[in-house]
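Bit of a strange request maybe. I'm writing a small parser for structure token strings and I need a real example to test against, not something I typed by hand. Could someone generate the tokens for this chain?
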Amino acid sequence: MSVGDDERTQTALLLPVLAAERVVGTHRRELDLAAADGIPAHVTVAFPFKPLEEIDAEDHARLAHLGRQHGPFEIEGHRTAWFGDRVLYVEVSAAREVHALIADVASAFPAYPPFAGDFPLAEVVPHLTVGNAAPVSALQTAARAIDDALPFSELVQSMELWAGPPVDGRTRPAPWTRVHSYALAPTAPTPSRSMPLSHQ
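Reply from user aminoacidic:
Good idea to test on real output. This should exercise your parser:
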């Protein structure tokens, strides 16, 4: 008997930005179900990603390889912004580096484009979500408080795989956990061996 889509463990690939917690942590816990599920402040690389039950050793190796193609980079948050009037987020720097990683993951796993392919890849905006589908007045209050507390800055050195119960249709928290971490660290080039000089 096959497992239904609603029974599979959902996953996400994230860039944790723990330095943002002091600025957005309280607001995220009130306004973003992901925070209530235990997911830290982050920038999303891929969600929803491949169901956990289907991720194998080859997939982990592929993700580790992708991580090695991207060095660590600094992410800074300087101001809040909105997607419509339903999603409050913090604009982040290093958008080029984040987007390059998003594009590489999407290319390696074409069946799992970011945000389920709802937006063309070129239009995906790297961001750190604060609140989603909460009352507008609450989001506006949070935006004012966060703008007063910004900026934050963090050296992002890993991409993480998180997993938990499906999100769609759920209104109560359910624990998500970190499954794996993939270092953002380019492989150092192998030193070339100098050939001994021959004596003529």
